[in-house]
Design goal:
Number of domains of chain A: 2
Oligomer: homodimer
Distance between the termini of chain A: 37 Å
Helix content of chain A: 10-25%
Mean pLDDT of chain A: 86
CATH superfamily of the largest domain in chain A: PPM-type phosphatase domain
């Protein structure tokens, strides 16, 4: 997320180490983002994704706003499925790259008694359980803390959530029971019991068949996995809030995650990052963006039902521009939370308040503060110079789309592209698909670097080249000045997995 | 809307005259639908659409539940564009046909000083102004009053709303001004002023150009027309509420309207009626249905933010079935207002309340009462045997879709089909398209009855034929026992209009 308001920040970058709450705040950050965090240790130190394996020199190099080096996966590093990756820092809006990414192979298994109360543990090289592939892209704003923390933990929360329904995943052909045993799933039974005993309880766990007489919805396993992912985003958000009392966790972030489990690809998006599948050079969009414009009616509805959240400063009614005091009594175009079209209303005193949703396209803001309406963190974000919190209007719940990967045939040039808005702001879906398809078709199919090279190609196309008049694309249009992060994931990569 | 609960009502129909509050109530009607209406006169008498021109004998005949006669447009009656129409009464769920329909050609003009305070007047044969074509389909429930009233007035409210922006419609190439003169549009200026003077004020009306320096959204004329239509539905609903103090206006209704204005077709839908365009035998859906399932999250969100509306009887959380008291402490699948997938939660006391949304498909209900979530009327509708009102959960605002009619070429077999759910419950879009395309292709292209015959064909296909085991379709499946109403509107009909 880039601030569209230019700031006077120097391009000079000083010492690299954690200073999330020192670096420059653009107007997204509001007044109170870091209140009370001074002196607290960081939850995770600043860095780039582990899989890049950057030396301190390279880490320093990656932050040069003047050259904006493209950092890509090293030759020799192999990510799951042969995934390609590239990133570049912004043109100066923040000292550090606020994007983060993760790519992991994990294993879903029953929560063991040992770890009953310590979730989020490492897999410790014990490769038993149901394999789970995870790709995450996090676009931070007003600090890098939330994005870093999410990139370290969200996939583990999802894995642990799936662990809770592991016994259902292991029987994919029987519909999940509506109701489980008293005091939770069979797995929370006494750890001393044997497997057979547990299995018996499993049957017992399903509620009395007599109640089946009544209407009972059949819920698919797929929608249970969706439920785990939705719940995990909420748990991640709650964890950030909880740990903010002990750690400095600055800002918020958009979160885009792709999860491959048992033949299906789940793409979960909260924010304005974007993922598309490119299959036979055709685009299949896997996300919708959540912005003040796309979520206008939801936000207006909340402001309408809970006007106290607007702090007497904002109106939930949308106007096409600010109203001047002298215009009282005139008629102006407006939209309320129920409308898609526009109508005229007579201007009254209350309409002089600032509109809850204001601005167009990338400049649209909630309460003049934030340009994205879903994501993690931002618990302390307030309207500048006020005590009005933005968080009640933000949602941490992703929209999850499912792609049945194993039921489709994929060639080596069929990929999932995941990117932060730095990519998509200047490059359309179609341009991305053309660039990737053209590039891959010319590339040696046996080159293990081909997907990273494709990611690099996309990155160059949206960052552009530094000219006298800023970062410019080949067509001389302005390139993206934002942080840019791109995954190119081969959909046939799964088959080549050992 | 048909009740899925069979009632013991006799098929015998007595005297025909207005007795909206006498006829049998199915469980949609709740306890208090007609409270306080006893003794009030009807706003409009019961009848079938004027254009059918039924004699008293035919009106009586149209209510025979045993034979369910197909009532179609008479040979010799020509509706605008040569529109075809057919209808049939239900199989016995209510004494009268609760569907209504209207088809009108109107003219949009400035509100004249004469009618300043009396809207809803007739056109009086004065064919000046911008022509407006209107088709409306109204599916009543729990009484026929709201549907009848809407079928008489909604198109006039829309016409009058468009009249207010008539000066903008007359200049379709200039963007509508954001702000109009103090005290309303120029048309509300003193009636004694001449046209030239009014035009001068019109220019004056646009606000000071200096404010344009700030962000200002450009609003299209099309979205202004959408705003008029959305507002008109709200005005219609408010009028029903207001006039209920003086008249008996029973029940509520779904409303589906098609408006042709200045080259564009606007299709506005509030409820579970449905409209599709059939072009080159291909289906273009022009509506989405609004039901407890499709609007689940909106309703749950309201219940979550305003729990007092649930009257301590309902929970906003969705469960796949009722929970029994003995299941307290067990874990059950659930969805809250943010979720699309399902997850398990431990059952607490509060979860024993009845779910706000309950049931599947056509049996899904809001607060166990109503199976449709948008429409007009229903102001007095309560949960059976309680004081809990349903209306706060219902929306009267339509979704409006726009089809650029004049920018597409249409042959004589390209049509817009509008129908109440009686049609669509048993016949898919594709089946309707095939039936219409096949029928019209075999039909004499010069027969003025061809679209009415096509409507009749669709009607027969969804009503079926009475056999020993009820109304049956040719494939022996159950036909629709609901009221059925169908318009078949030729899209090239506009060109043949004189």
């Amino acid at each position: 997320m880039i601030s569209k308001v230019k700031n006077a920040m120097s391009n000079w970058v000083g010492g690299m180490m954690p200073h999330g709450h020192h670096h420059h705040h653009n107007h997204h950050s509001g007044g109170g983002q870091n209140c009370g965090q001074e002196g607290l240790p960081h939850r995770f130190p600043y860095g780039r994704p582990d899989f890049l394996d950057l030396t301190p020199e390279l880490l320093q190099y990656s932050t040069e706003h003047a050259s904006r080096p493209v950092i890509a996966l090293k030759r020799g590093t192999r990510l799951p499925w042969g995934t390609g990756y590239a990133e570049a820092i912004n043109a100066g809006k923040s000292m550090l790259n606020e994007d983060q990414a993760s790519c992991e192979k994990l294993f879903v298994r029953k929560p063991s008694s040992k770890h009953r109360n310590s979730t989020l543990v490492d897999d410790n090289g014990d490769n038993t359980g149901i394999p789970l592939h995870f790709w995450g892209v996090y676009d931070g704003h007003a600090g890098s803390g939330a994005a870093i923390m999410a990139s370290k933990l969200l996939h583990r929360i999802i894995r642990d959530g799936l662990g809770e329904i592991c016994h259902l995943l292991e029987n994919p052909n029987s519909a999940p029971p509506i109701c489980l045993a008293k005091n939770g799933s069979p797995f929370q039974a006494d750890a001393k019991k044997g497997a057979a005993q547990e299995a018996a309880e499993d049957t017992d766990a399903v509620c009395d068949a007599s109640v089946r007489f009544y209407m009972e919805k059949v819920v698919s396993l797929e929608s249970l996995v969706m439920g785990v992912i939705e719940t995990a985003f909420k748990q991640m958000d709650d964890l950030i809030e909880k740990e903010k009392t002990s750690y400095a966790i600055s800002g918020g972030c958009c979160a885009l995650a792709a999860i491959y489990l048992m033949g299906k690809l789940y793409v979960a998006n909260a924010g304005d990052s974007r993922a598309i599948i490119i299959r036979n050079s055709e685009v299949i969009p896997m996300t919708n963006e959540f912005t003040p414009e796309s979520e206008r009616q939801r936000l207006q509805y909340l402001g309408f039902l809970r006007p106290e959240l607007l702090g007497n400063e904002f109106t939930h009614i949308e106007f096409p521009r600010r109203i001047q005091h002298s215009e009282l009594g005139k008629k102006m175009l407006y939209r309320d939370h129920t409308m898609t079209g526009w109508a005229y209303k007579t201007i009254v005193e209350d309409d002089l308040k600032f509109p809850l949703i204001y601005g167009e396209g990338k400049k649209a803001r909630v309460m003049a503060t934030i340009g994205v309406t879903r994501g993690l963190g931002d618990h302390d974000l307030k309207v500048y110079n006020s005590n009005i919190y933005i968080k009640p209007f933000l949602s941490c719940v992703p929209e999850v789309m499912v792609y049945n990967l194993d039921e489709n045939k994929h060639g080596p040039d069929d990929v999932l592209v995941m990117g932060t808005d730095g990519l998509w702001d200047v490059t359309t879906d179609k341009e991305v698909a053309e660039a990737v398809s053209t590039y891959l078709s010319r590339c040696d199919p046996s080159d293990p670097m081909r997907y990273t090279l494709a990611a690099q190609e996309l990155l160059m196309r949206s960052r552009g080249v530094l000219k006298e008049r800023g970062w410019r694309l080949p067509n001389d249009k302005l390139g993206s000045g934002d942080d840019i992060t791109v995954f190119v994931i081969p959909l046939a990569g799964h088959e080549s997995e050992t």
